[in-house]
Specification:
The protein is of the alpha+beta class. The protein has three domains: about 100 residues, Arc Repressor Mutant, subunit A, CATH 1.10.10.10; about 40 residues; about 50 residues. Helix 2 packs across helix 3. The protein starts with 5 loop residues before the first strand and ends with a helix.
Length: about 200
């Protein structure tokens, strides 16, 4: 029987014997097996490329149970479904003889570490989604603020502020005009006085 507590089939299915669990890394799905089904999977995986006779399987797994023959057929069908083996390439049948396991077996860490990695990835997705929503909202308010500064789209407060600025600007302009007018009038008076003085002489 399989010496490794955890092993990998076809670089996809992580099998943990002690927990009767198989983790499908491609679909990110956990499958819990009935103990007898796990024993059958390990028995076949322990003899890759070898013919495993039906009689041996029924003796090892069903221990001479009368319905072992039909139970074995159903168990093989369930394992093929679990391993996505519709073409019967991983578990091949030799009619009236037995089965040959063609899956590639390799060492692997426990399912817990695989699940933790997957869980971390799942947690990262909503965090990124929240960040994207936050950035979209920030850009929306920036755009709205910029739009409010365009002519013809001023708020009441902005209109009041701009009217004050215009009033100060007009006041300064009028002050400059009055100063220029006074200077011109003074110049004219001085010129007239000088002309009169010249006549009197």
């Amino acid at each position: 029987m399989m010496n490794r507590a955890v092993f990998l089939i076809n670089n996809r299915f992580v099998v943990e014997m002690a927990k009767n669990e198989v983790w499908d890394e491609e679909k990110n799905e956990m499958h819990r097996l009935e103990p007898r089904l796990m024993k059958l999977l390990c028995l076949l995986a322990d003899r890759p490329g070898e013919v495993v006779p039906r009689e041996l399987i029924m003796k090892e797994i069903w221990d001479g149970y009368p319905g072992a023959n039909e139970g074995l057929n159903q168990a093989i069908s369930l394992l093929r479904k679990l391993l996505n083996d519709e073409r019967k390439e991983i578990i091949a049948t030799l009619p009236k003889t037995g089965y040959i396991f063609h899956g590639i077996i390799s060492a692997r860490t426990g399912i817990a570490s695989v699940k933790n990695k997957f869980t971390a990835t799942k947690m990262l997705v909503p965090v990124m989604a929240v960040l994207i929503v936050f950035l979209v909202i920030m850009n929306y308010f920036r755009y709205k603020q910029a739009a409010n500064l365009q002519p013809g789209r001023l708020t009441r407060e902005q209109a009041i502020e701009f009217s004050k600025i215009d009033s100060r600007r007009d006041s300064n302009t009028n002050s400059r005009i009055d100063s220029n007018t006074d200077a011109k009038n003074i110049f004219r008076i001085d010129s007239a006085n000088q002309a009169r003085a010249m006549k009197n002489k």
